[in-house]
Amino acid sequence: MNTENRKKIFSGIGFLFIVCTVLVNCKSKKHAGVTDTLTSGTIHISVDESFKPVIDEQIKVFEGSYPEAKIIAHYKSEAECLKDILRDPVTRMVIVTRGLNRKEEHYFKDSLNYFPRWDEIATDAIAVIVNKNSNDTIFTVKRLQGQLAGLMGKKEQIIFDGLTATSTVRFAIDSILKGKKFDTGVVKAVNNSNDVLNYVAENVNAIGLVGISWIGNPEDTAQVAMLKKVKMVYVKCDNCTDSPYVKPNQLSIMTRRYPLVRGLYFILKENYSGLGSGFMNFLQYERGQLIFRRAYLGSSKMGFAIRNVKINEKLEKE
């Protein structure tokens, strides 16, 4: 091999080495400081306080399956969660009752150069609760509209987990009042969902609105104990031909027979395969969906079927 050919070969090798070095450096700069993977590391997430019981369980199972993973959840109002995902660089994911709008998506595109991922992962409901000694257990959405607007007197107070910024308040304004304001003379705010339950348990004339995650699980001993102090009311299903008054349970949520249903969404601010992506996958796939179902929420990613069964066999007498 002559000297000229050797120079060409070494020049080519040198060029390839430079290209590879540049690519590696670009990649490392792109994800500089990344210390987490799909199943390891530590991240912070912000979660709508309405879903604390079920998300606590999701994190417990996920961390039990992946001991090197640590997910630190901060439970807040929905508005505060959305502020975190938009402005706080530490917050990797939020779990709230809506996805991003187009303006918010473009904000991320302009500031971070990518669109965050978001999707519905479960369906939830707002339960209407009253004191155990109350005989007022039949409601309609129209009645709730009247009471929230102050058109039905001020004897009964409606209790929220906060007057502003919470997903329950937003649902009441958007889906019950259809954009109108409620009468602050009949609405009382407490600190969180647990305080809503306790307030209604102690006041006969109180009506509480709370996420079903806090009161709808018959396998949770704390929730079963609370149902001895409060009770969930029936709400009229305007689209039903039979049994028009229904309670919020898994079947009525998934079939939308119960009228006060809302979605549960994740918003993930991560453009690589990190721990946020790992937890997102867990929530969307079988194990996470089964946890939602076990918490008596509706699962959005797993199908179900309802069949009418007629049993003709008679039990034999002993």
CATH topology of the largest domain: D-Maltodextrin-Binding Protein, domain 2
The CATH class assignment of the largest domain is Alpha Beta
Rg computed from alpha carbons, rounded to a whole number of angstroms: 26 Å
Structure summary, number of beta strands: 13
Helix content: 25-40%
- Sheet-strand content, in percent, reads 15-25%
- Residue runs with pLDDT of under 50 for 5 or more positions: 6-30
Structural class: alpha/beta
Fourth-level CATH superfamily of the largest domain: Periplasmic binding protein-like II
The biggest beta sheet is recorded as: 10 strands, mixed
> How many domain units?
2
- Could you report the average pLDDT, rounded to the nearest whole number? 87
Q: N-to-C SSE series?
A: HEHEHEHEEHEHEHEHEEEHEHHE
Q: Based on the structure given, which CATH architecture of the largest domain is correct?
A: 3-Layer(aba) Sandwich
Overall morphology: globular
Beginning-to-end CA distance, first to last residue: 99 Å
Total helical segments:
11
Descriptive account of the structure:
With 318 residues, this protein is α/β, with parallel strands linked by helices. The protein has 2 domains: 119 residues, D-Maltodextrin-Binding Protein, domain 2, CATH 3.40.190; 137 residues, D-Maltodextrin-Binding Protein, domain 2. Helices cover 38% and strands 22% of the residues. The strands form 2 sheets. Strands 1, 2, 3, 4, 6, 7, 8, 9, 12 and 13 form a 10-stranded mixed β-sheet that branches. Strand 6, helix 6 and strand 7 form a beta-alpha-beta unit. The protein is globular, with a radius of gyration of 26 Å.
